[in-house]
Amino acid sequence: MACTRVAAVAADSPGLHVCEAGSRASTSSLSPRASIEHVRLSPRALTLNESVNKIQIFSGRQSGYDGVRRIQPIRAQAVDNELESNGTSATATSQKTTFFYLVANAKFMLDDEEHFQEQMQEKLRMYGERNKEQDFWIVLEPEFLDKQPEVAKRVGRPAVALVSTDKVWITFMKLRLDRVLKGELIVNSADEALTGKLTTVTFERPAKWIAPYPKYEGDWWTPFLYKKN
Amino acid sequence: MAAMACSMGTTVAPRAMVALESTTSSLANYRVSFVGPISRRSALVAFGAGNGSSRVTMAAAGAAAPKNKGGKKEIDESLLTPRFYTTDFDEMEQLFNVEINKNLNEAEFESLLAEFKADYNQTHFVRNPEFKSAADNIQGPLRQIFIEFLERSCTAEFSGFLLYKELGRRLKKTNPVVAEIFTLMSRDEARHAGFLNKGLSDFNLSLDLGFLTKTRKYTFFKPQFIFYATYLSEKIGYWRYITIFRHLKQNPEYQCYPIFKYFENWCQDENRHGDFFSALMKAQPQFLNDWKAKLWARFFCLSVYVTMYLNDVQRTSFYEGIGLNTRDFDMHVIVETNRTTARIFPAVLDVENPEFQQRLDKLVVLNQQLIDVGKSNAPAALKALQRVPAILGFVNELLALYLMKPVDSGSVDLVESEPQMVY
């Protein structure tokens, strides 16, 4: 959907405190949809990307926001059709939603960290028991990364994001997962934050499995994927 | 171990030495120090055991007093280990005083508070009629082992309750958020202890927790060491519980008592408690960011892993009773706990190096030699002499383990090269 937008709109829409103004306008050239039959990512070890020198992912957040706010009037232009179908945005000018995310490679998020799965299921169970509306999702190969090349090049592919409107909970999850990038998105519709290019990822079985129980397998993340209305 | 004490001795406060001394002396008191609980806090037991440890009551925190007691009572006490812990509450107040300490990451603490307030397990600990009949079916030697398991676990949870409750009370003024988290964690621990105590009633027994509170001795740790030890204790507790749960889920024929079915949700509490200590340490970077911190981090990892391994190998019938291979189970727990711990401790041990387990197994043999000497009818003086080679061997192995090339680690939030990392 992003491809069809005029630059000004693209610059304004999904929130962008992370990116420099220049990079914001261009869509990412990364096309991670390709060949993800088998994922070969080294788990549990962060890699240093020598070519990436001065990325200010976490600093300058505030000024990024201000930038977004300042150019807000441009938003008068029509954006996506999804906007209408998605109840979160009734008027084109005011209804922006902020999402908070953690992102890392899929292997880490979905395969290595079995406690993450337990935790997600625990939260979903609790929401069910208390009739709370779900406000957290797992996004496989998030579309929003296309508009955040600075973030995109810092995560292994395929990437997986945990996205929520609950900033406080995301802060906690960052503490728990640690090896993840944290960011925010200001979007016009939930779709922009929650749409993933994939619905499943396959992982190779580990060569050596020392646990006295079988590995969690299967698409455990399915209940956490965003479903459009 | 003695050499380690020397190398660190110049840099630590005298009280900190208690931890080292107690571990050293517990070698001589082998029956106490390595007869810990099967419960999640098992790993901590060795620290307090032995003549070198000091105790303190909650009321008189900070005033360490040496113990003086005979072997018999020590052994009895060890049956109900883990120990109860206390700390320097005044120092804790200083550390978390928002006025003094501007480094406190309030957002992180607020997020933890929200997580504890959510109280995921509010309605989880509800018993059903299965318990009593399952307990009745556990007969023979396994019955005694089960009772011991419940007693130790209950005591462990209860000791957490006491410590956290007191911290919650003491920090109320200086840092209400941290204080409330401690109070909510004591809620969890009380719930766990109560559930285990009800389990004991299935075996027609009960622990008098009020009596324990008054009569048990308290082991003193400086806040820094409370952080390391309690973090490890909570995280290793998570890995022990979840491993048992996942194993029994796959092998229900070993599901001989329903309490294990509760472990999956239960141990999420432990995991969260560990996260809180993670945040506490991040708020006190002086406990994470220098070479001393690295030495302590390795020391605590080693103590916790070794104690658990020796404990569990001695109780192998319990683990076999639920269908686990004790050493495989322990190594898995150690490896996973170590991986988790590497997200906060500045250094961890290279436990995935095969040499690590080989040396642990040598410790098991030496520990068994010590036990055999103790059981013999030789005169006390001769026994002491007979123990010497095993003790020397033991110290030698521990040192070798400690000096194995460590793995540098830590939270990415504290790493300077973070901007270049690819996740």
Task: Provide an overview of this structure.
The complex is a heterodimer of chains A (229) and B (423). Chain A is an alpha+beta fold. Chain A has a domain at 97-205: Alpha-Beta Plaits (2-Layer Sandwich). In chain A, 30% of the residues lie in helices and 13% in strands. Chain A is globular, with a radius of gyration of 18 Å. Residues 1-45 and 49-92 of chain A have low confidence and may be disordered. Chain B has a domain at 84-287. In chain B, the strands form three sheets. Chain B has a two-stranded antiparallel ribbon with strand order 1-2. The two termini of chain B are 39 Å apart. The A-B interface holds A 44, 46-50, 52-57, 103-105, 108, 114-115, 118-119, 122-123, 125-126, 129, 153-156, 168-169, 171-172, 175-176, 178-181, 210-214 and B 107-108, 110-112, 114-115, 118, 120, 123, 238, 242-243, 246-247, 249-250, 264-265, 268, 271, 275, 278-279, 324-325, 328-329, 331-332, 335-336, 339, 343-344, 411-413, 417, 419-423. Strand 1 (47-48) of chain A pairs antiparallel with strand 7 (421-422) of chain B, so a sheet runs across the interface. Chain A: Belongs to the ycf54 family.
